[in-house]
Amino acid sequence: MQESASLAQHLLQSSPDALLVVDARGIIRYANATTESLFGLPAAQLVGQPLDVLIPERFRTRHGALLAGFVRAPANREMGARINDLFARRADGVEFPAGIRLSPFSYEGTDCIAVAVRDMTERRMISNALVAAREEADRANRAKSRFLAAASHDLRQPMQVIRLLNASLLRLIQADDVQRDLLQRQEQAIDSASNLLNALLDISRLESGAIEPDLTAVELAGVFAGLQREFEPSAAARGLNLQIAPTDLRLLTDRTMFVQLMQNLIGNALKYTEKGNVLVEQQLDADSLILTVVDTGIGIPEDKLARIFDEYYQVDSHAGTKRQGVGLGLAIVREVARILGFVVTVSSRQGEGTTVRVRIPRKQLLRDARQAAGSAPAVARAVPAQRCNVLLVEDNASVRAATEMFLGLEGFQTRSAAGPTEAEALIATLQPGDILITDFRFGGTVTGLDVLHHARSRHPFRVPAVLLSGDLESMLRAIREPVPDCRFLSKPVDVQVLLAALAELSAAHPP
Questions:
Q1: Does a structural domain hold residue 57?
Q2: This prediction's pTM
Q3: Which of 45, 74, 144, 447 sits at 20 to 30 Å (Cα–Cα) from 393?
Q4: DSSP β-bridge partners for residue 390
Q5: pLDDT tens for residues 99-155?
Q6: Could you tell me if 232 and 316 lie in one domain?
Q7: For the chain, how long is the longest CA-to-CA vector?
Q8: 237 and 357: one domain?
Q9: Would you say 89 and 55 are in contact if contact means Cβ atoms under 8 Å apart?
Q10: Cβ neighbours of residue 367 under 8 Å, at least 6 residues apart?
């Protein structure tokens, strides 16, 4: 017993915290050796002193009220747990941030309070440094968002020029000319560069938090029809069978991001399937809608499954497999699913195929099958083109010249303006059957949509239009209501998609 008591006494004296015993009046009855090193006063000198001598003067009134409250309702707790700035005072008057714990006990019939005091200066410095680092990270994210908003438009402009010039050269070269093969190879390289740029900007924008989901009612049938039209030519060219099961379900989700997720899943399945099928199916269980993308492709080794959603990671499934892309498709799927609240899982057998399941909470399903408000226009169908007159509004001189050249070679009569102000006079001369092609973003506050609304307000007929943007997602989010007889395309634009959009609009609005 004597040894235990001696050990306890040594423990109290050498505690890393300053330990004091205070009575109900706030008088110090005991102080350990650590108290002297923390406060600069010998323990013996503190005994009999009011606890106020260790508290800065500006806090003493509040401390008296806190002590009285603690005596009325004693409990083992941290003092001032809800007070951000709790300070103690050394003998030389220097203050320091303090952490103080209180524990009530009774000694020889007297109510006492055990007080443990710790210097929190270092912890406060670390906390302040973390707060500063977080604020700096937030500033960096905001700067990154601003950069991406500009980059998504500006970096695509030169790609737009190259793609249009290449398409113009293809139009000029004879079908049997050797140069045509070189231009077609160049076109493939341009497509690859465009896809890489899109993927890099998409993953950066998603990870930076620059995108917030815009929840609207989305008809799956319309989305799936657009995906079928988008990927059917690619599947057919490779001898693959792409099947998307019909559905009448509707979701409350962000249409643009949902389409982006499905595009990456279907595109990835087609990319790594050499023969057979790619199937998109739906299944309902008790709490989820499960969308399944199944392929008969090369499959993924079991030890690689955990890494397939990492950025820039690609699976070498077997020797001789051609590297395709840069491995950002599933990373984009991961980020989009996280933002939309979906869960994506993958199962695969090497050499037999892969199954990707997207689990969507059932609460996001909508009951009726009415037309979804805010639905994006359907993908343009390839119809015979009528070579109409076109008014082009584009503030980038190189893009404007390349677009004029391409449209001219395709048989369109094209007039152009360098911006909304310059377009004013030309808008007044529009005739039924003319089509407006305009960039969405200009230097000021006026957008391409404003140009279109102005053109329609000037004439008794509805002016059909194509709106182009280097940041298609942001453009679609800025459009709060459906815009009839208007197609929204991304830069750098696929020239065949542009021609299809013009053909559809001209067929619907003949001169």
A1: yes
A2: 0.51
A3: 144
A4: 414, 435
A5: 888 899 988 888 899 999 999 888 888 888 998 998 888 787 777 666 766 666 677
A6: yes
A7: 109
A8: yes
A9: yes
A10: none
Torsion of CA 343, 349, 350, 355, to 10 degrees: -40
Same domain? For 410 and 368 the reply is no
Query: What does the pLDDT look like over 169-186, one tens digit per residue?
Result: 888 876 566 777 777 777
Residues 310 and 410 in one domain: no
Lowest mean pLDDT segment, chosen from 144-153, 257-266, 339-348, 396-405:
144-153
* DSSP-derived secondary structure letter, 55: S
Domain coverage including residue 95: 15-119
Q: Which residue has the higher pLDDT, 26 or 82?
A: 26
Q: DSSP letter string over 311-335?
A: TT-----STTPPP-S-S-HHHHHHH
Residue 196 belongs to some domain of the structure: no
Nearest in space to 223 (alpha carbons), one of 198, 246, 195: 246
Identify the helix (H) or strand (E) that includes residue 478: helix 472-478
Asked if residues 504 and 484 have their Cβ atoms less than 8 Å apart, the reply is: no
CATH of the domain at 351: 3.30.565.10
Same domain, 236 and 272: yes
Please report whether residue 10 resides in a domain: no
- Gap between the Cα atoms of 383 and 64, Å rounded: 85
Over the stretch 422-435, which tens digit does the pLDDT of each residue have? 999 999 999 999 99
**Distance between CA atoms of residues 505 and 497, nearest Å:** 12
Domain shared by 241 and 95, yes or no? no
Task: Report the share of the chain in percent with pLDDT over 70.
Answer: 82
Query: What residues have CB less than 8 Å from 25, skipping those under 6 apart?
Result: 50
Contact between 467 and 488 (Cβ < 8 Å): yes
CA distances from 378 to 107, 257, 366 (A): 82, 16, 21
**pLDDT at position 25 over 80:** yes
Q: How many domains does the chain have?
A: 3
Indicate the length of the chain as a whole number. 511
Residues 370 and 430 in one domain: no
